[in-house]
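Are you able to produce any protein sequence you like plus the matching backbone structure tokens because I've never seen that pairing?
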Amino acid sequence: MRSVDEHLNAILDVVNPLPPYEQPLLEALGLPICTDVTSDLDLPSFDNSAMDGYAVRYHDVESAAEDAPVRLPVVGESAAGQTKAYALSPGQAVKIMTGAPMPAGADVVIPIEWTDAGRASVRIARRPDGPGQHVRPRGDDVTAGELLVREGDVLGPRQVAILAATGQPRVRARPRPRVVVISTGSELREPGSPLGFDSIYDANSYLLAAQARAADAIAYRVGIVNDDPQELMATLSDQLVRADLVVTSGGVSKGEYDVVKEVLSRLGTVTFCEVAMQPGKPQGFGTIGEDDTPIFTLPGNPVSSYVSFEVFVLPAIRRMMGRLPYRRPVVRAVCGEGFSSPRGRRQFMRGRFEVTGRGPAVTPVGGPGSHLLGGLTRSNSLIVVPEETTEVEQASMVDVIVLDRSF
């Protein structure tokens, strides 16, 4: 029987990061950048006004006061994106809008609130503090050649903004993996269709596709494949053209109708094993097709599928994207209730995690059964119990994987 870490390491030895390519900024949102990016220009790229008001020479207004205002002729108007270049002579003013370029010769902006808002001439009744007030100088934010994002940085909204502001519409990044999700089992039915006395609705393909999307992958939910070897092989052949990774659920135990194990064992490229964990003991992993596409064959019980995805598939997806770390971080918390754990297996017990006035705490939710989807729904964490531990005592410290957090 493999340990959890042995199985994960075997997976990560096979799964490789996807090749990077130039992508539009918004398409690369949430992906790590594969190269340093420097600015091609200064930001701002020209001196501009930080206020609505009047661009003037400081020397012409340094004596302005309420009891001794300065009046200057207004020789033009500068608006952002719709103006001609002005050159200001001594003793003149140009009406200016926020973001508009400063006229040559002007070195200060008088806010409109300090004036009578005149059109032909303007009365200025307050002296600015000095040259440069209310002016955004060229390169004040970013200078040409400055590093904007580093290789490995994850592209977020703020990084998108600075790249767009410096005129860069694309960035080099690895793509989101395309994950094909297939549920197997002749007993499965699509939600919304009638149920027979021995049939159930397919939750697993929805669950796993949702997990893949939550991991920032592109998920293709194929749906249900009956326990028929030819149907399974035909489906896999059809889907490989759009798959960077395939995930199946069901058909991997030791039963007579475990079609996934039966079909993929013939290929010789997929290994089926038992992993020392609860839930999720029966696992399969390998590659299929001409492109050696990785395939995960997960157990059919929904909690087993969910936990298996978190422990094994999620790290593989993140490795494909170049996202670090591969695994969710583990935190320590006080356990609110005691429970038992099987010897020799790493248990992933569903829990409800919260940060209280006394610190992080977690309470087990539901039982250990791998079919208890209701308990999984009420949980927001997994309590990780080591293989050698058989009893978790109330108020003891435990390792917890907090779900639904970005990392």
Observations:
- The chain has a mean pLDDT of 94.
- The chain has four domains: 4-19+175-321, 22-42+152-173, 48-136, 330-402.
- The chain has eight helices and 27 strands.
- Residues 181 and 221 are 5 Å apart (CA to CA).
